[in-house]
């Protein structure tokens, strides 16, 4: 503002304040009519139809689970009905289901082949209930090299689209190298659970909170992504409760690492911040079974229509396309 316009502005303000005083101050203000609509359709706000906004975007859920707490087929069947209900209500064309082994035995994640084979069998069974909507990710533990390779083949042959791994082994552990090479051949993304906590008093507590020591943190992704620039990695749930600003900043220069927006933590600007730091092509929609909020946080962002379309659908579809597994 120039000095001249500043003076004009101040003068103008003084005039307004003066007229206010003359006319009896704030009490004399008549509230504009539009604040008191005679019907719900009178206001611009009422014209926003959230379900119409939901329907505008095709969606691909890149992070969603079967029931993680049960091995019972009937429980899974009932849960699958709720997944289908979600897909219909919020118009999600495809759900990429996973079932990582989350069970701890004396504080150590169960990393046995029996456990990952059992969990994959659950996903395969659920996928078959609604094959037009449900697809799946296979899990494994790379320290069991042969069993993991056999399992990948078995699951890919039955239509699974990518990998989902948990905190059995760090994503940049050397045992992953042959698996990552296999995933490059298959043109599939590796989705890995990830965390990073907010420090207290300036100290970033990477391993507190009684977390298993092999939980993958952003620096582990940066490391493996640099070693294998042709591979693709999905950093799980930036809305999962960790320090998402730190995650996005740390992954900024790793172009083959994508993040998904899932999780039950929905601070304002999370989605905008991710796009600002990672670009509009590396952010993927996911729910992590937090259905309404996961869609709502993208609708509520300040992104453009094109960016929202990319995040809800196109970015993940393009990843699937590399291996000919795209939705259409
Ligand atoms: Zn999850």
Automatic annotation (TrEMBL):
It comes from Daejeonella lutea. One of its GO terms (cellular component) is cytoplasm. It comes from the Bacteria. Residues 114-289 form the Amidohydrolase-related domain. InterPro entries: ACMSD, Amidohydro-rel, Metal_Hydrolase, TAT_signal. Keywords: Lyase. This is Amidohydrolase-related domain-containing protein. The keyword Lyase applies. The lineage of its organism: Bacteria, Pseudomonadati, Bacteroidota, Sphingobacteriia, Sphingobacteriales. One of its GO terms (biological process) is secondary metabolic process.
């Amino acid at each position: 503002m120039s000095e001249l316009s500043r003076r004009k502005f101040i003068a103008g303000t003084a005039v307004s304040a003066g007229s206010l005083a003359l006319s009896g101050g704030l009490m004399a203000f008549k509230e504009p009519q539009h604040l008191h609509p005679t019907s719900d359709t009178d206001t611009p706000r009422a014209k926003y139809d959230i379900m119409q906004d939901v329907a505008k975007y095709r969606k691909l859920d890149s992070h969603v689970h079967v029931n993680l707490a049960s091995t019972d087929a009937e429980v899974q069947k009932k849960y699958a009905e709720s997944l289908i209900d979600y897909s219909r209500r919020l118009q999600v064309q495809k759900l990429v289901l996973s079932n990582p082994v989350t069970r701890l035995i004396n504080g150590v994640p169960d990393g046995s082949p029996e456990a990952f084979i059992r969990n994959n069998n659950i996903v395969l069974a659920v996928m078959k209930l609604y094959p037009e909507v449900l697809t799946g990710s296979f899990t494994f533990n790379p320290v069991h090299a042969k069993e993991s390779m056999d399992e990948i083949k078995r699951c890919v042959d039955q239509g699974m689209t990518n990998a989902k791994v948990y905190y059995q082994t760090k994503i940049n552990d050397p045992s992953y190298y042959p698996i990552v090479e296999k995933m490059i051949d298959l043109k599939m993304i590796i989705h890995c659970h990830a965390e990073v906590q907010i420090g207290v008093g300036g100290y970033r507590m990477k391993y507190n909170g009684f977390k298993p020591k092999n939980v993958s943190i952003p620096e582990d992704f940066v490391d493996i992504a640099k070693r294998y620039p042709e591979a693709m990695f999905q950093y799980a749930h930036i809305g999962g409760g960790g320090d998402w600003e730190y995650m996005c900043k740390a992954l900024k220069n790793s172009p083959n690492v994508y993040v998904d927006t899932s999780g039950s933590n929905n601070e304002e600007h999370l989605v905008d911040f991710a796009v600002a730091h990672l670009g509009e092509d590396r952010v993927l929609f996911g729910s992590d079974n937090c259905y309404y909020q996961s869609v709502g946080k993208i609708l509520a962002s300040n992104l453009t229509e094109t960016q929202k379309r990319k995040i809800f659908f196109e970015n993940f579809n393009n990843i699937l396309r590399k291996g000919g597994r795209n939705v259409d």
